[in-house]
Design goal:
- The complex is a heterodimer.
- Chain A is mainly α.
- Chain A has a single domain, classed as ABC transporter involved in vitamin B12 uptake, BtuC (Orthogonal Bundle).
- Chain A is built from eleven helices and two strands; from the N terminus they run H-H-H-H-E-E-H-H-H-H-H-H-H.
- In chain A, about 50% of the residues are buried.
- Chain B folds into two domains: about 220 residues, no CATH class; about 80 residues, no CATH class.
- Chain B has 14 helices and two strands, in the order ααααααβααααβαααα.
- In chain B, helix 2 packs parallel to helix 7 and helix 8 packs across helix 10.
- The longest helix of chain B has 27 residues.
- Chain B is globular.
- Chain B starts with a helix and ends with a helix.
- The chains are: A mainly alpha, B mainly alpha.
- At the A-B interface, helix 3, helix 4, helix 9 and helix 11 of A face helix 5, helix 11 and helix 13 of B.
Chain lengths: ~290, ~325
């Protein structure tokens, strides 16, 4: 039915795309868990990361430098957006933050269009080395993406479990008012979390840029998948996000091998199935509304 | 007298709308009417039941495409087309409703958005043989003339849309006044207490979901007949926020908010896209500004002022 070579390359493709989804979904998930906002503008930081990577790698010829610059720029922009917009509307209903972030996304796409134009641009792959796994040639870069995202997972895990700020963030996900009662400035925590989320989205964009073409709508194209990852994993859970990201990645990749339109439809079917069994996603807790 | 009182507000609003018709170009008036029907469902869900839905385009497209399929492949009567659109909306909301209304408000928003995107992909790629993909279905010439109100003429269409909107407003005003409307509001504010009173949250929400999304599907099929063509563009992610934005712009949960919001939003969009090519940028920052500006929206701010003014006038008269 399906030969092993195709299967192995399919699995590797799924893992690499899952890693990208993970890097983006982690931002959405953390922002929701702590601040109870649905931050659609993470998709903008993803596009910005990709475009900065494109520009820098065109000038210097190094993708890694570009991805680093993309991370930094995305982080700085997310800091500005958080300061000027979100800080004023944290207290309001979830609909307000969602639409405000959607406005930032749409407006940002407009800015990108006016700076770089609407034509899709290719970014060169930094390494063309292929390594063979069980007789199948696999691009090394895709494996590297997977390794980087796993490293990010470990780093986030260590940050949340071993540092005092991380512990405060975790406590904030459980109950923000108690954290405030302990004398911790929660708004500083919010800003920290938002910058981390934006930076990781920028990294995702930078790493994804060589695998696809960079175009202004790229954020909106990955949006459904990132949402599905967050919903399946459960809002606010890091472990759930990792697992569901790789799940969705595999479903997209292997599904498209069987029947092309399945790539878009199958994750949705899985999401519905999981929500039917567990309405809060795989690892989502029954968070109370604030 | 009591009956008149009940109708007073709606009739006044629609009288103003009818007067506006003579000052504004016809396509603009039609757009406003359909858009406000579209928004009404969303406003009901958000204001009364507390569900924010980012997936309204999904239901809009369901209605529009059901009508389009009928007019493109089978028949010519636009009224039957609209009926089929409504039935399709009823069907899809009965299928996905029981799944979705069990979810918390935040998941509900995301799941609906995902549904909209999936329907977009289905219309654009998966069902390309039937839907003709991005080209869309064109059936303006297929619409037959009907005796009393000829829907193929924009002039008559406006009267029809106006009457439909009036009926929808009466329905929603009636709903707001019934015990059921009170239950909806109660389940938004405190679902545990609703349970204690012996009502089922699930049933209340499912009914609200079905009513609201059937209204949305009706707006979709009216769009289809008015424009004479449908394309997957109407479900694209860019437009996902439109109804929610208009709802908040007009004032959440108010009866006249959707009309005021639709006029303001359509007007702004027309003006801006006429002046500047890169309208996305401005719409984006406009959204942010609206969200920062206030929670009450245009109608929510105006209503107390108007009431105050009217009340004072009445008091003056009675003296």
């Amino acid at each position: 039915m399906m030969d092993t070579q195709l299967l192995i390359s399919g699995v590797i493709f799924g893992l690499s795309i899952g890693s990208i989804f993970f890097l983006m979904a982690i931002g959405l998930s953390l922002c929701f868990g702590l601040m109870r906002i649905i931050s659609l503008d993470q998709l903008l930081y993803y596009s910005i990361g990709a475009y900065i990577t494109y520009s820098i790698s065109l000038v210097t010829g190094s993708l890694w430098l570009g991805a680093l610059a993309g991370m930094v720029v995305a982080g700085v922009i997310s800091f500005g957006v958080e300061r000027f917009i979100f800080l004023r509307i944290y207290e309001r209903d979830i609909a307000f933050t969602m639409i405000a972030s959607f406005g930032v996304l749409i407006g940002g796409v407009g800015v990108i269009k006016s700076i770089w134009g609407v034509i899709p641009r290719p970014v060169p792959i930094p390494m063309v080395t292929q390594i063979s796994i069980l007789g199948t040639e696999v691009p090394f870069y895709r494996l590297l993406v997977v390794v980087i995202s796993l490293l990010v997972y470990v780093a986030i895990w260590l940050f949340l479990n071993r540092t005092i700020i991380g512990k405060a963030i975790r406590a904030g996900i459980e109950d923000v008012e108690h954290v405030e009662g302990l004398g911790i400035n929660v708004y500083r925590l919010f800003t920290t979390t938002f910058i981390i989320a934006g930076t990781l989205s920028g990294l995702a964009g930078g790493l994804h840029a060589p695998l696809i073409m960079v175009d202004p709508q790229m954020g909106l194209e990955v949006m459904p998948f990132v949402f599905m990852v967050v919903i399946i994993g459960g809002l606010g859970s890091i472990k759930g996000t990792l697992i569901s990201a790789f799940l969705v990645g595999q479903v997209v990749s292997l599904g498209s091998l069987i029947y092309a339109p399945l790539a878009q439809m199958a994750p949705f079917a899985i999401m519905l199935l999981i929500l039917l069994i567990k309405p809060t996603g795989l690892y989502g807790s029954k968070l109370l509304k604030r | 007298m009591k009956l008149f009182r009940w109708w007073r507000g709606i009739l006044l609003a629609f009288l103003l709308l009818a007067v506006l018709r003579f000052f504004l170009p016809l396509p603009f008036s039609n757009e406003i009417i359909i858009f406000s029907i579209y928004t009404m469902g969303c406003s009901f869900l958000l204001g009364r039941v507390g569900f924010i839905s980012f997936g309204q385009p999904a239901y809009l497209a369901t209605g529009a495409y059901a009508t389009a399929f009928y007019l493109f492949y089978f028949g010519t009567n636009p009224y039957i087309g609209i009926l089929i659109g409504i039935l399709a909306g009823l069907l899809i909301s009965l299928i996905v409703g029981p799944l979705f209304v069990r979810l918390r408000s935040d998941y509900f928003a995301l799941v609906n958005l995902a549904l909209a995107v999936i329907i977009f992909y289905m219309l654009q790629k998966v069902l390309v043989d039937i839907t003709k993909g991005d080209n869309g279905l064109w059936f303006l010439t297929n619409i037959a003339s009907t005796p009393v109100l000829d829907l193929s003429k924009p002039n008559h269409f406006y009267i029809f849309a106006f009457l439909v909107a009036l009926a929808i407003w009466a329905l929603y005003k009636y709903l707001n006044d019934t015990i059921y409307g009170a239950c909806c509001l109660a389940s938004k504010i405190n679902e545990d207490k609703v349970k204690f009173l012996g009502y089922s949250n699930f049933k209340i929400r499912l009914t609200a979901f079905v009513i609201a999304n059937t209204t949305t599907a009706l707006a979709g099929s009216m769009y289809a007949i008015y424009l004479g063509f449908v394309s997957p563009e109407m479900t694209s992610a860019h437009r996902a926020a439109d109804p929610v934005v208009v709802t908040i712009l007009g004032g959440v949960g108010t009866l006249y908010g959707p009309i005021v919001g639709a006029i303001a939003y359509t007007g702004m969009k027309d003006l801006i896209s006429g002046l500047i090519g890169n309208w996305e940028l401005f719409i984006g920052f406009l959204l942010v500004f609206i969200m920062l500006a206030g929670e009450k929206g245009i109608w929510g701010t105006l209503e107390p002022l108007l009431k105050k003014a009217l009340f004072r006038k009445n008091a003056f008269k009675s003296e």
